[in-house]
Amino acid sequence: MIRFPPLVGHEDHGQPTGPVPTALPIPFLPTALAFCLLLFIAILGASPVSADESAHLSVKVLVAYHSLSGNTERMAEAVVDGAKSVPGTVVVMKRVGQVTADDLFSSDAVVVGSPVYWSNMSGEVKTFLDNWQFKFGVFPDFKMKNKVGAAFATGGQISSGKEVTMLTILAAMLGNQMIVVSGGGAFGASATTEGDSPGIDNKELADARALGQRVAEVAAFIHSAPTR
Ligand SMILES: Cc1cc2nc3c(=O)[nH]c(=O)nc-3n(C[C@H](O)[C@H](O)[C@H](O)COP(=O)(O)O)c2cc1C
User: Is any atom of ligand 1 closer than 6 Å to the C-beta of 155?
Assistant: First the structure.
């Protein structure tokens, strides 16, 4: 027969049941303090991410865009919102002409947005991408290598260049050995801004937010990898 040990604290040992002493023994307080201190140090030491590390683990997303009449800028703002929804993400949003070398090289991800001009990216966006070399000298060291890249576009008409615009932006990123991702749509987020569908609608804004969120999530994943 299995004998179970008696339940501790549930036995009556016939001890005298007087009032419980309220005063703690004198050495108890310093011992308790020392124990708490040791526990605190142990928790800090065992923490998987220290304060320094968590600052290091935050990712920076640069959203660079060109916009004359505001459509691409609205999409850029939604991309920013999506990226910011990922905890630990720092986002910088700038017009392509305002981007500095530091903005570019300190970022973990770059999302580029363009209006469609003659079925392709606008001249301003092309100049921005060309300036990665002419102004910032990304090549031959591939200074943008392994940063996350993505694109978004707005165009007046359906089937009139948004996908070409996004793909040519992504092609430039691939040439720089960046890690290209989509989101919102197959090649990025896009919006039709004229005709039956003027401006940016809620679905298009949601696509832009989805792109920003995906970019930030992928950048955080890559950033936290043990070897980069
Ligand atoms: C010079 C120029 C060329 C354009 N070419 C096209 C085009 O080929 N296909 C298209 O869908 N929209 C075209 N558009 C329309 C713009 O892409 C569209 O209005 C866009 O949303 C503008 O963006 P923004 O408001 O950010 O400036 C063109 C607009 C301009 C000014």
Answer: yes
Q: For residues 141 and 209, is the Cβ–Cβ distance under 8 A?
A: no
Which tens digits make up the pLDDT trace of 48-105? 444 444 545 699 999 999 999 999 999 999 999 999 999 999 999 999 999 999 999 9
Query: Ligand 1 atom 4: the closest Cα is on which residue?
Result: 117
Residue 224 identity: S
Q: Is 154 in the pocket of ligand 1 (CB under 6 A)?
A: yes
Domain boundaries along the sequence of the chain? 59-223
ipTM: 0.99
- Pure H helices in 119-161: 123-134
Phi then psi for residue 63, to 5 deg, are -110, 110
Q: Tell the CATH superfamily of the 59-223 domain.
A: Flavodoxin domain (3.40.50.360)
| Residue 199, ligand 1, Cβ within 6 A | no
User: Do the Cβ atoms of 58 and 90 come closer than 8 Å?
Assistant: yes
How wide is the angle at C-alpha 225 spanned by C-alphas 207 and 208, nearest 5°? Answer: 10
Q: Say how many Å lie between the CA of residue 76 and the centre of ligand 1.
A: 16
Cβ atoms 161, 155 nearer than 8 A: yes
Q: Which atom of ligand 1 is nearest to the CA of 70?
A: 25
Residue 102 CB neighbours (<10 A): 9
